[in-house]
Amino acid sequence: MNILVTGASRGIGKAICEMLGDNIFAAARSEKLLSAYKNYCVCDLATYEGIEKLGNYIVKNQIDVLINNAGEYIYSPIEEMSFEQIEHITKLNLSAPLYLISKAVPYMKEKRFGRIINIGSISGVMGEAYASAYSASKSGLIGATKALALELASYGITVNTINPGWVDTDMGNSSANEGEFTKEELVECIPQKRFVSPYEIACMVKYLISEPAKGVTGQAINLCAGLTCGC
Predict the structure, then answer these.
(1) Edge to edge, what strands does the sheet with 220-223 contain?
(2) Annotated active-site positions, please?
(3) Do 161 and 145 meet the contact criterion of CB atoms below 8 Å apart?
């Protein structure tokens, strides 16, 4: 398998790359952070040029496992969000994954095998006040996952989304600090009283690309320490 991970330079993406080992093709904005990988593509998926560059890279390297992990979070009242901010978060969190899938699918169909995993968020399942653009983009990713799972099922291609809750990464911790609650207060609202680790998400990815998981498709899996169950 040729496995491409976006947002591979840190956090969840880095944990996934470390878990999966060989045949990793890494993508992110920082060449300095990507230089640890044998195969990588430096690109900014919030730009059309970056999206197109990585799409061509996918075709060239015959990627048959695509892990759409790159994403950003914006915490803001809707009336204070600019069009540019809305476009930025939508392009990075939703448009880029869909375009990259479109470039990967022809080879997957030819091979009659493929694994597509999108890293979503429970904010796309439950909604989150002051994160409407983020929630909308992640909700759209879940809808696309279900539709594509139906479209591609007969080709041996599975499509799934993992929805993390609060994750112990730089992005997760900074997002927690941006809100109206402290990290300690957020932890009190999580049934398991903890943030999820990137390692746990990487383990779920490893399972979903495995042969025993070939019947798992079109699913939105909440990996959130019980947060979607309520307090």
Answers:
(1) 39-42, 24-28, 3-6, 65-68, 114-119, 157-164, 220-223
(2) 134
(3) yes
